[in-house]
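Example (one chain per record):
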Amino acid sequence: MVLIGLAAASQASGTLPTAAWQAYKRAFVAADGRVIDRGNGDISHSEGQGYGMLLALMADDRTTFESIWEWSQRNLRRDDGLFGWQWHPNKTPRVPDWNNATDGDLLIAWALVRAGQRWKQPQWIDTARTMARRIREASIANTPFGPVILPAQQGFERGGRYTLNPSYWVYPAIDALASVDDAAVWGQVRAAGLRLLALSRFPMVGGVPPDWIVLHPDARLGLPDDPSRRRFGFDALRIPLYLCWSGITDRDLFTAYLTVWSSDEAPAWIDLATGDRAAYPIQRAHRAVRWVAQRCLGQRASAAGTGATPVIDPADYYGSTLMLLATLAHPNARQLP
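Predicted structure:
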């Protein structure tokens, strides 16, 4: 487990400190560019490849960026230019399900736009533009609520009833795609996501959104029947990062997060239907996101006890990734290089 000092992590330049990135690469990025989820059977997924590309960009590591991008194209790219959601090292075929994951597609396209701008590679921007159009065709549904992001092309709509994940609205990615594609459409998608958050704050636990939510044909919002999906948990954890990174400072929503995570003994997840809580407390990644929320609200946030110091834990791909993103999402380091 590697800890990286806060002073380095809080650089206003928006770049990752070298030590943090090198520790992350050693833990999760193979030599061929595969980003490995060590705590989940060593699988890889489009989300991880997208996060890896973004982190490599922010570390100004073009060699690793290109290796991650090339691996993704060789192993996960579909004929339509989007990406299969999961790759298994111990299964045949390696990609048993070619459905996409829309957040992974958004992350990859975002990384390509910004890397193309930084390193003057217009072909990457062209690829991102094509991906943006394909995402609009395959993974955005026009509903009475507005255009919503489907978690994948298949499997999340039945009879006009949509199962949505608010954390799939990767707001800085939406902003980046709006700059190279149809800005009006992406602006509508952005607005629908913010409206979804505004209307899905559950008062039982202070007004936070769930990991998953059901949009009914009459535009009502409800919780899924599956108890594991109606939690405020590890998916919703990403939302403050994306909001802050995009310059959205919704005081009510950020305050709700801070209320729920008011102490280090707060539960890691809460069932928003029953109030049931995890038997274990919030993790380092939660504390890092809490720190981001405090900074976004202009509150003083000390490194001590907040989780602001990034920890690279080789057994925890997701938590380590969120901790590095947290060092880049707060207002003093929001700009991509």
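Caption: The longest helix spans residues 122-139.
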